[in-house]
Amino acid sequence: MTIEFPSGVWPAMITPLKEDKSIDWDRVDRLTDWYIEAGVAGLFAVGQSGEMFGLNDDERLALARRVVNRTNGRIPVIASGTFVPSVEKQAAFINKMADTGVQAVTLILGELAQADDDDTVVQQHIEQLLIRTGSLPLALYECPEPYHRLISPELVTWAAQTNRFYLLKETSRSVEKVRAKVDAAKNSPLRIFNADATSLLVSLQAGAKGYCGIAANFYPDLVVWLCEHYADSPQKAELVQAFLGTADTTIHHKYPVCAKYYHQCAGIHMLPISRVSQAVLNDYEMRVLNQIATQANHFRELLNIS
Questions:
Q1: Which CATH superfamily is 8-232 part of?
Q2: Which of 22, 23, 180, 300 sits in a 20 to 30 Å window from 2, CA-based?
Q3: In the 8-state DSSP scheme, what is residue 253?
Q4: Domain segments of the chain: what residues?
């Protein structure tokens, strides 16, 4: 199977919830459309931003299926599929997740070995999953939970040579590590997507294929613009990058609650509640988010983004 995942922005989707903390399916649909209207390349449903560790297996599958159905083939979707330590159970769930219609199932690196295990253990675990999942396309995720495991360039090279992996969500916040992984994946289907908005511009210049992180839950159109125009509009690209970097600490504070509040500015009006966080925004925090939304609108005018 030959697949090429498009370059650009892959939002790490949030999951709207109702007052009783059940999934708000209508707003999942509206949110999916909102991302697509912003010009994103693909969607990462059922990730940490989507509160995947606060969902049960049925909800994870239903959420992935809902997003796939709503996209209706307009853009590809990926979703996580490794939530238990058993290789056999992980493989079984990966196959179930693939049946939802996602273009690839994501392996959470922190679920593939213990924190003190070396890359040999991770590789052996992945090899067993490859055997048990046929030819299904896969992705890799340096998720901060259950612990923050980064993949080495050597393991990136090995994974790339299997021709089963198409996307790596890179979360090191290190340009040097991004560059090393880009080099390690050369001449393979595996593409590196930076999750750090503060280093997005320089990572694109180093060969990363785009962005897969939380800033795309706030102003995906601005991140899309940067990914598409960083080379042909370098001065404006520097300004957009400065905005992304300046806002980054704020959008991480009380996340994902802050992102759900911010969507009230975007017209989706989802409730600022979460299963994985009990955070409540105060007036000061809401005021700062509102001012970031005003700044984002200023950049839309500067860049002529409707």
A1: Aldolase class I (3.20.20.70)
A2: 180
A3: T
A4: 8-232
